[in-house]
C-alpha cells in the first residue's frame, strides 16, 4: 500500500500499515500555553468513527519553543522516500520526480553557498568602507575606502603608503589642517561621533525590527540543531536586520567580530531557501541537516576556510551529522568560498583573511613558549567565560537589561574614547591581527618593525629592538589589557557580536609580545645552551608573527574549546601549513587548562544561561541515579493523569484535558491495572474531538472514547463511540524503573527523544521528559534546576 506522507504522520501509519511506529512528540509536562502536534490523517475502518479523513490545519507542525520529535520526523521522511521510490517504477513522470527529489538537496546547497557568499562579500566590503569613514573620506569618490582610494595615486611613498592627497581626514575636510592639536581633537571627536552613530543605528534597528538579530547566534543555532524550535530566529527579517546591523556594529569599533554572526546569516539563508523545497519545508529533521551544512558555510565565508567550516559544524555546532550531510556541507562550503573569491572583498586576490609568509621554520625548542601561550589561552578562556557569564547574568537580573540602547551607547563611547589614542586599538580587529601576524622585512615601516639596523647584507636577520619597537610594545601591552576588559562587557549586548576576532586579537597581542621577547633573548644570548646549534649570530631564528598566530589560536581555543576545527581554520586562514604542530600543541594545551576550570565553552555557558533545553553531547553523566529517581510524579505529587483504553466518555476526556497543563497522556488498560497501552497527545485529542463534533452525527459528551481495535458492546440507546486508536502511539519508548540514568540520558541524546515512559513489570509508574533530565543534571551539579526555562 502506498501512502502519501505530506499529510500522514507516523501515528497514522500504525493504523494503516500495522508497522512499528516510534513515539509521538507529546510530553507529559507543563504545557506553558503551547502544544505539540502529530499527524492525524488517514482512513479508519468506518466513516462514522473516523473524524480524521482529511488533512487538518496545523497538523505536522510544532509550536514555538518546543522540541521536535526526531524519530517521528525521520520516520516520516523514510515513508516519503519509500513512496517516491515505489511510484518511480510506474511512470516516466514519477521517475523524473524521483530524480528531481534526489537532486533537490544538492541544488539547495548550491543556492545556500551562492547566497551566503554574496552576502558575506557585501558585508566585508561595506564594513571595510564604513570603518574607514570614521577617519576621513576619499575625494575621488566617497564610496572608495582608504586603501582603494590611494591605489591609483602616484604621490604615495613606501614609508607613508597610506597617505595620499585623494584621501583626507575629517580635520582636513573641516579645518583644512592635517597636523596639530586642533586637527587631532577634530579627528578624535569625529571618530567618537561615527562610533556612536553606527552603534546607535545598530541597536535601534535590532530592537525595532528583529530582536533575534543580536548576539553571536551560535548558542541558539546549536540549540535549534538539537531539535528546539525558535520561531523567527532564522526568518527573513532577522536575516535582513542582522546583515545591516552587523556592518554597523563592526564599523562602530566595538570589540566584536563578524565571523560568529555570519554563521547565523548563513543559517537564515538556508532556512529561507528550504521553503522552496517541499522535502525540507515539511520536515524539521531534514531542515536541520541543511542548517548543519549552512553552519559550515558561515565559517567558510567568514574566514575563507571551507574545510575548517565543515569540521567546525561537525565538532562544535551540529547535533545530528550523517555522512550525507558531510558531503553536502563540503559542497556548500566550496560554492560559498568560490563565490567569495569571485567577489574578492579583501582586494588581494586571495581567499584567506590573514595571509602569512614566514621565512624561517620553527625549532623544537620553541615548543616550550608555544605551550606557554596555550596555558595563557586556557587561563584567559576560563576567566573570560566566568566574567562574561557573570556580567550577562547581571544584565538579565538588574535594571541594566531594561536599557539596551543606553548600554550599547555607553560601551561604544567608552570604547571609542579609550581606543583612539592607541593606534593598535583604533584599527579594526582584522587589521590588528594582520599587523601582528606580519613578518618584518628590512624596509617595513610598521612600528612593530622598529629594529636597529646592524646589517645591510641580511635583511631578515634578528636585530636589536629600537625605540620604535619599544613604543609599540608598550602600546600593545595597554591594548592587551583594554581588549581583555572591554570584550567581557561587549559580548552579549543587543547588537550582532562575534567572539572569534576579539579572542584572536587578545592571543595575537600576547603572542607577539612573547615572540619579540624570545627574539631579543636569542639575539643577546645566541651562545646559550637552548639556542646553541640552531640560532647563530646574524641568523633569522625567531619569527614573532608565528607566535602571534599561535597565541591567537590558543585564546580562541580556550574560549570556545575547539580543537581540530580550530587548527584547520588557522592554517587555512593564514596559509601556514607547515606550522600545524605548534598550532596543535597550543590549542590542545589551552583546552586542557581551560577544562580544568570548567568543561563548558562560551557557547554552552550561554545556552545554560538562557535556559535552553540542550543536552550537551560532550557532557558525561557521572551519577548513579535510576529512572525512578528522576521520573514524575514524585512521591508527594498528584497521581499520574492517564486515559483508559475504553470506558471514558468524551466529556470526561475533555474535562481531564482542561483541568491539566500536560501535553500528552499515557493510555492504560484500566485505572486499576495501569498496564500501558500507548501514548496520545493533548493536541491530538482536542483536534480529534472538535473535528468529530463538527463532522460526525451523534458525537456528544456522553459518547464513549475508544482506543481499542474493536469497539466494545454498547447499549442500544448509547450514542456512537469515538474511535481514536489511530492517533495513539502504540509503541512509546519505555524504560524500567531500575534503568540507570546514564543509559536513559544516552537514549535521549542519540534518539532525540522528548519523553519516555517508566514501567515496572508492564505497569505504568511515571514519565521522564527532556526537561526533567536537564533539571536533574543541574541539581546534581549544584545549579538552580529552575534555570531550565523551556520544555
UniProtKB/TrEMBL annotation:
GO cellular-component term (any): synaptic vesicle
UniProt entry tagged with the keyword Transmembrane: yes
Domain CBS, residue spans: 636-695, 728-785
Matching PANTHER family: CHLORIDE CHANNEL PROTEIN (PTHR45711), H(+)_CL(-) EXCHANGE TRANSPORTER 5 (PTHR45711:SF7)
Keywords: CBS domain, Chloride, Endosome, Ion transport, Membrane, Signal, Transmembrane, Transmembrane helix, Transport
Signal sequence bounds: 1-26
UniProt record similarity statement: Belongs to the chloride channel (TC 2.A.49) family.
GO molecular function: voltage-gated chloride channel activity
Membrane-traversing stretches: 105-123, 188-213, 234-256, 262-278, 290-314, 364-385, 400-420, 472-493, 499-516
Protein name: Chloride channel protein
Keyword Glycoprotein: no
Bilayer topology: Multi-pass membrane protein
Subcellular localization: Endosome membrane; Membrane
